[in-house]
What we know:
Blueprint: H1 9-19, E1 22-27, E2 33-36, H2 51-72, H3 79-92, H4 94-98, H5 101-107, H6 111-118, E3 123-126, E4 129-132, H7 134-148, E5 183-185, E6 194-196, H8 212-227, H9 331-340, H10 367-390, H11 403-437
Antiparallel strand pairs: 1-2, 3-4, 5-6
Helix pairs in contact: 1-3, 2-3, 3-7, 5-6, 6-7, 10-11
Amino acid sequence: MKPRHHVSRTAIELIKRFEGYRRKAAQLPDGRWTIGYGHTLTARQGAEVSEDDAEALLLYDLIAVAKAVNELTFTPLTQNQFDALCAFAFNIGVESFRASRVLKQVNEGALIQAACGMELWRKAEFEGEVILIDALVRRRAAEKALFLTPPGGAWVPVPSAVLKPGLDIEAEALVPASPPAPVVTSLEGEAVRVLREDEPAPRPLPPEGESPVTAAAEAVTARLATVFPDEAAAPAAEPEPEAEPAPHLEDARPQADFAPPITVDTGGEDAAEPEAEPFELVPPEPAAEEAPELVIEENEPERVVEGPAAPDLFEQPSPANDARAAEAPSVDEAEAAARERVVIDDTAPYEFIPTPVQPLQRPKDGYLSLVSLAVLGLAFFAGGLFWAVNAQAGLEQPAWMSPKVVGALACVAGVGFFSIALFLLLQRLGQAAERADGNPRI
């Protein structure tokens, strides 16, 4: 039977060091009151306690924490490990400790992993923002050191000359990317005030009326103007001559290179310029063909001498090669061609010859695979049922990944696998019975 531990003076001093002593009750942002070393159960407005009474209230609060740690852990723990877990659970809350990965790893026997997992609880909400708190980093380090301290101080020697330490790249996630925020909590007054020592500087606002890019460009331009004075203004460029309009198609006719220049005799300054005649193209007259002479004699009927007669349009053209000399086929050849001719009778009935159909080849009865599928379904169902009943939800897991939801999905999958296997098995047995009766189903 696992022994029950009690909180020792070591855990009490560790908690008192990080909780701080508050003599008068102060109101929290959520409306509750706190007094002493983080006591909230019986605190009220105007109450005052001494240090001894505050320690008594702390011991009263640790009763429930020690009971929860004793009941939730199943791995044998040393006194230092129990004290570290009690201090850890007092800080994050019993419900958060119940759903944390630290408790899961402790029950699995992975005590070193559990100690390292305690360091991950180091962020808190401050002014609506979740930030890394310096005091929480130190508190987790102290709890981890207490958890790893062996009973009686019997440390295991690790000589540097024998085992030279190396860099653990996988542990880089424990190193914060930015320095933690130093936050200080006031212990005086009727209201709890949390102050941040390194208040971040506000971001510079852009000047009104112009963008930062425009202001920077103007500053650079002014600086260059002082370094390189302006030179004499360059002469203005002459305007380009306007392009002449394209000539008309009639004026773009090519001119002969050898044509002599045209000179006009004006006959004086006052003489009028003669008008040029319009240019015309005159088609050449076709040469007249000599017509046959018609001779008409008196006392004789009129005769017309005609040329050669026109060919008849309906007359078959004569062959222009040696084929016209080919002779007609003989009688024997015509009879041989008639004997070789095939006569098809469309009225005769057509004989239908069906194509032989090969029966489908049934796969071999895989009863082993169906039985395996059924066993897998039963395993899914049993595992999902066990997981939904015994598993505990983690703190960082969403609601749809809770153990009950995952277990229910596994049970549904198991029922589906078993049903499919049972259906296919009955179908195989029915087909085997039909083939045994001699009436296979295709």
